[in-house]
Amino acid sequence: MSVNPASPSFQLFGDSTQSVNYRKDSYNYITQLFPEQMPAIHTGLFNVHLNQGIIVQPHWHTNVNELVFVISGEVMTSVFNPFTQSIMTYHVKPGQASQFPKGWFHWIVALRNNTHFLTIFDRPQPDIVFGSDFLRFLPKEIANRAYCVNETAYANAIAPIKQSTILGPPPGCEQNGGITNQTNHYTQPSPTAHPYLDISSPPYPY
User: Fold this and answer.
1) pTM for the model
2) Do 69 and 135 lie in a common domain?
């Protein structure tokens, strides 16, 4: 978007808290700051608030590099390196950052309650491809032909994925058993126990 700095309407201020991108509940939500909120901006960001155990689901960007900067709490960032065929995982604390190169598959897990971080892009309009969409639209016949995956088993495994998932797990999810028939909301996790990672002795690089 072209902006004329000589225009009387030109401004260099924006408020990300006023534009909600996605809201799971009052503890877990994403706001944003992009050209539609601040026309002069040449980058863009998501302002993310998560409680422990909530995940920004696996996805990738076709057109941007992404920088994760932690303000409070802690996160685990993971990215698949297509050159080494390995997953690179980092434990990121306040004041630290983690990078996701363009086109690399990645995800973020909050390790503490009241975690707050920014995801900053080097272009103002990031394209996002969600892993949930790839899984739910991949025909079971193709999964079988490509990977020798049992069609019925694959269909059953992805059956709980009814829509694009941005922050997971969804309400009513049992971590090892898929979606239950209950409609209760996700219980806010303990600020001390962490089901994904023992942060007392991290086995990954800083």
Assistant:
1) 0.83
2) no
Nearest to 109 by CA among 189, 22, 19: 189
Q: Parallel, antiparallel, or unpaired for β 20-23 and 66-72?
A: unpaired
Residue 14 CA to residue 29 CA, distance in Å, equals 19
Number of domains observed in the structure of the chain: 2
Phi, psi of 50 (to 5 degrees): -140, 150
User: Same domain for 33 and 98?
Assistant: yes
Residues 135-164 pLDDT 10s: 999 999 999 999 999 999 999 999 999 899
How far apart are the C-alpha atoms of 21 and 18, rounded to whole Å?
A: 10
Residues 125 and 143 in one domain: no
Nearest to 105 by CA among 66, 70, 76: 66
Pair 68, 167 in one domain: no
98 strand-pairing partners = 68
Asked whether 100 and 46 are in contact (CB, 8 A), the reply is: no
Domain housing 154? 131-176
Burial of 178: CB neighbours in 10 Å, binned 0-12, 13-18, 19+: middle
Residues 6 or more apart whose CB falls under 8 angstroms from that of 138 comprise 158
Query: Residue 151: enclosing H or E segment and its boundaries?
Result: helix 151-158
Three-class SS of residue 186? coil
Query: Looking at the domain assignment, is residue 9 inside a domain?
Result: no
Closest by Cα among 117, 16, 105 to 68: 117
pLDDT(65) > 70: yes
